[in-house]
Design brief:
Residues 290-321 are annotated as: Disordered. The protein is of the alpha+beta class. It has helices at residues 7-24, 38-48, 59-73, 98-107, 138-143, 172-181, 211-232, 240-257, 263-273, 277-315, and strands at 27-32, 52-55, 89-94, 110-112, 124-126, 129-130, 148-151, 154-157, 161-164, 186-188, 191-197, 200-202. It has a five-stranded antiparallel β-sheet, sandwiched between helices. The chain has a three-stranded antiparallel β-sheet with strand order 6-8-7.
């Protein structure tokens, strides 16, 4: 008969396993495991098998192991994990794509009934329709102010009713009614709270950003830097082209308002003195178009005259008849 390991031996084994995982993996997902059963967790481990490892444990043990491992290795980046170990959480060590792993974890959600005293994670709405309950069950609906009517010997809900709001605790009447209606409004699974990547921690929403989103945000940042630089007259690479253009506009405005001039300003002054030159600039184009029209029509007229002369010869007349 195998001897069961003592608590001290279990702690030592757990510490060795956690330290080994910290050495092998540089990417970790910190996930909340509230209301997640052992069978559900086993399915998640099976689904992630290959490039990811799920490790659960007491927060005090994980914090102690991480702190001692950071001291032994001198890698203080591991200490960024300690503030994240709050509540019922687990660690998912992975070498795969963080977004794909996060999406895989979110697939394993299991429906759960509304238990008394449970804080609702979402709004619960009872839909209208036939409930299949006999008229003796109307007391549940009356207590919860749900409008009903008797239809063919069963209770029918007239309109949809928001039974429980997000953040409220589930009462005994709400739980009993949902159980009778066969509604399992909640679903639970591992929920990724934070992402750890080579010492950096960030929100999992970052994983949903696409390349187009990054380009758009970068362009928005450049635009803000440019606006700020122009407002305070501080030169930056983004604002430099706009500053040169604005400076040239100022110089041109001074040249137009005074007798000072330079070649580029002379041309603008000429246009302002004689606006008709704007039309002169387009005159060569119009002249070329009008000249091309007669040249194309002339051969047509010549071709039309030739058949007319031939028709006179055919009739036997001459110019002297």
């Amino acid at each position: 008969m195998a001897v069961k390991p003592t608590k001290a031996e279990k702690k030592i084994a757990y510490d060795e396993k956690l330290c080994q995982l910290l050495e092998q993996y540089s990417q970790i997902l910190i996930a909340a495991a509230d209301n997640v059963g052992s069978n559900q967790l086993q399915n998640i481990r099976r689904g992630l098998r290959g490039d990811s490892v799920v490790l659960m444990g007491k927060n005090t043990m994980m914090k102690r192991s991480i702190r001692l491992h950071a001291e032994r290795t001198g890698n203080t980046a591991y200490l960024n994990l300690i503030p994240l170990l709050v509540g019922n959480v687990g660690l998912i060590f992975t070498k795969g794509d963080l977004k794909e792993v996060s999406e895989e974890v979110s697939k394993y959600k299991v429906g759960a009934p509304a238990r008394v005293g449970l804080v609702a994670p979402i709004d619960v709405v009872v839909p209208p329709g036939n409930t299949g309950l006999d008229p003796s069950q109307t007391s549940f609906f009356q207590v919860l102010n749900i409008p009903t009517k008797i239809n063919k010997g069963t209770v029918e809900i007239i309109t949809a009713v928001e039974l429980i709001k997000k953040g409220d605790k589930v009462g005994s009447s709400e739980a009993a009614l949902l159980a009778k209606l066969g509604i399992r409004p909640f679903s639970y699974g591992l929920v990724v709270l934070t992402v750890y990547d080579n010492g950096s921690t960030f929100s999992p929403e970052v994983l949903d950003l696409t390349e187009e989103d990054l380009i758009e945000r970068f362009a928005s940042g450049v635009s803000m830097v440019t606006s700020l630089s122009l407002a305070i007259s501080y030169p930056t690479l983004a604002a430099a082209p706009h500053m040169f253009i604005n400076a040239y506009k100022n110089i041109l405005a001074v040249a137009l308002a005074t007798e000072y001039s330079y070649p580029q300003a002379e041309e603008v002054k000429e246009y302002l003195k004689d606006p008709s030159k704007f039309a002169v600039a387009s005159a060569p184009v119009a002249a070329a178009a009008s000249a091309a029209a007669p040249s194309s029509a002339a051969p047509v007229e010549e071709k039309k005259e030739e058949p007319a002369e031939e028709s006179d010869d055919d009739m036997g007349f001459s110019l002297f008849d």
